[in-house]
Amino acid sequence: MKEKVFDKLDANQNKNILIATGLFPPDIGGPATYSKLLLDELPKHNFNVSVLSFGEVRKLPKILRHIFYFFKVLRGGGKADIIFAQDPVSVGLPSMLAAKILRKKFLLKIVGDYAWEQYQNKLQITNYKLQTNLKFKTLEKFQIERSDFITELRRKIERSVAKRASKIIVPSNYLKKIILMWGINEEKISVIYNGLKYNQESGNRETIRALLQFEGKLIISAGRLVQWKGFDTLIKIFPYIKKKFNNAKLIIAGSGPDLGKLQKLIDDKELSNDIALTGALPKEVLLRYIKASDVFVLNTGYEGFSHQLLEVMDVGIPLITTNIGGNPEIIKNGENGLLVGYNDEKELGKSIIKLLSDKKYADKLVLEAKKKVKEFSEERMIKETIKLLKTI
Questions:
Q1: What is the pTM of this model?
Q2: Going by fewer Cβ within 10 Å, which terminus of the chain is more open, N or C?
Q3: Sheet holding 15-21, edge to edge
Q4: How remote is the C-alpha of 199 from its chain's centroid?
């Protein structure tokens, strides 16, 4: 997307916002959706908005892309009142430096710990190359333990960028707790939950199942195929599910470095007729698969704030997830879903059986989830964001 120049400002448009984002449509992902929403909605509330996507420089060599992006922010931020970065490193660092030179207010959104994520990716590659299974390190534990030089450099960058921000937006109280561990002043941090455009059309359940030519119990899970998403545990307990429901099937949607490892586990357990790895699916297709299912499971070891859970609640399918990260801020155990321990095979298996066996109970959870999801509307998110922008 080309930079939009601030011109012909209306007298009522008293603040100009430059949004620096790593992703923007046609890119897919949370930052792309969020940035496009701000571009569409903020002008309705007396803001003039421009977006600068990192996609414009992504094809350049690693060091050059950040240098070029810095100069783009420097040029585009000249007439901005606020430079609003959507992550603390890729766009955050060049945006912070440009804001400092231009003497502009710097707003930062943090949806995760970049240093931790890169550390986990490195661990994933090490496990694959050495055929080992180094233990997953929780985000909380990562905050207090030293690591290798590159990881520590990334940690220093993201924390320095955060400390220089006028305000920081996080999508959950859990992530606020993590950012506080960075040594950030609590008064700078605002929790604004990500919004959902609920009541989206996902199709008729019976029609979708007929088109899929599927009969029986269907369990679905989705996400990036990485170690901390716990898909291997879901595969390991599936024979237990099959003993209770012989016609049960499992679909795992998503792509990632663990694809080969998960497929081998499926083959070794002779479950290739019962478990399917679909790869990444377009959002509308994934929602239809979810609509056709009986239970959605997210056995994750890390979740800052899961937009996926909100979508499942909106579609109207009972769900099971872990009492990890921001999940308990969305799901109240036994009220609008079920919470289990991460990789707790026994509790996970029992919970799946419970929801597959007791439709009345599952429907009760769905009804309460439908009510709860309305608390996370896009309108509320925009309203709270505008309120914050007006204080800067």
A1: 0.88
A2: C
A3: 47-53, 15-21, 82-85, 105-109, 167-170, 189-191
A4: 20
